[in-house]
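User: Hello! I'm new to structural biology and keep hearing that structure can be predicted from sequence alone. Could you demonstrate with Protein FAR1-RELATED SEQUENCE? Please show me the input and the output so I can see what each looks like.

Assistant: Of course. The first part below is the input, the amino acid sequence of Protein FAR1-RELATED SEQUENCE. The second part is the output, the predicted structure written as tokens.
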Amino acid sequence: MIGAPQPRTILIDQARAMEVAIEDAMPHTTHRWCKWHVLKKAKECLGPLLGKGSEFKQEFNKMVHHMVSEKEFEDGLACMVQKHGLQNNVFLTQIYETRMKWAKPYFMDVFCAKMTSTQRSESANHLLKGYVPPGSLMHLFVRQYEKMQFDRDSEESYQEKRTKLVRLRTYCVL
């Protein structure tokens, strides 16, 4: 909207076209990458290294979620790469080179209201993909969307009934 105030920060996926458009349309807005997309790509590219209970996974998660200084992050990443012999891993090289777009230590001066991902839209998108196959016709989309809503409402109703507090009657004996 012309004349509308620009957001201070915007979180996007790693689409270069979006990045260029945002830089052009909102030059005073800081844009960062959605951590959810970075982690999804990590899962695709690092697969077995991120297996359940792996030492690498624990170190990677610590680096991504808990390191707060730039030095701590860079030293942690370098140590992890060295320890696991991943100096030539293309994905790890790319995330290092783009760290200022997604890593927590580089967000410290940017107001994000504690958000690091497009979490609501991503979770809704993930839920919808479970019901609607890609390339579906509109009538199938609507039918499956209604089924998704019905299933969610039913589950919510079930959980509400299951957890409803029961009023106990007690008798006072004097």
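User: So the tokens describe the shape?

Assistant: Right, they're a compact way of writing down the 3D structure. Reading them back into a model, for example: The longest helix spans residues 138-163.
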